[in-house]
Amino acid sequence: MNFSEPPALRAVPIPVRLSIWLHEARRAGLAALVAPPAALLLAAVLAGLVRVSGGSRGQVEYLLLVGLEAIAPLAVAMVALTVVTREGCRELHLSLPVPHLVTIGRRLGVVAVVTAVLCTAYAAVVALTGYQTGPGGAAALLVWAAPAVWLTGFAALVAAVTRSPVLASTAVGMVWLAEEIWTSAFVGNGLLRPMFLFFTSRTGDGPGWAGNRVGLLSGGVLMLAATAAVLTRPERLLTEEEA
Fold this sequence. Notes:
Layout: H1 14-28, H2 30-52, H3 57-85, H4 100-128, H5 141-162, H6 165-181, H7 183-188, H8 199-203, H9 209-231
Transmembrane segments: 28-50, 62-84, 104-128, 140-161, 211-231
Protein name: ABC-2 type transport system permease protein
Keywords: Membrane, Transmembrane, Transmembrane helix
């Protein structure tokens, strides 16, 4: 997978390059900037309501962790599939010098940066308040990054193959719900465990946690690579009417 720019664009002045990224941020849509913070805010509000209503510290901590590990990755995946499928001028990209893959890659990059900044800040604020959202140190990044990469890769791949935001969002939602419902099946099965999204919130960060995170990251990267392979053929994204 290579989202790097063509050699001809590498000599473009920095202000111009920045304007390109700002343009792609706008093209990614408002959801790319709103969905991740909305997901984290929802979890924080729910945790706050539980706290003021007399809930236990464990309940509050669990909700804060679920927001980081489960809700935020789902929001990011939904944004990613819309980035891949909703392009009003897809046929125009066939005649442009910049490959369609690079354009989509920039927009997904915007989503990734926004998500990383917000999730890192969220985890830091939660830690400052005395609550825990998994292991400390650099490993803390894997609490949200691993499920986000896997679910985003899955969403982007389904979206690129089906060319349908409805089918892609349905598939993502079904997988997310299935893992929530059949937790024991995923945790207890050696083949399914590496793709279990909610390992930290359901079983903690003890034995098997690192393997699960590595499995999620590896699977997510492979699906993103497969998505890139599909997007190198932008004509695959055209409907019969556009073709």
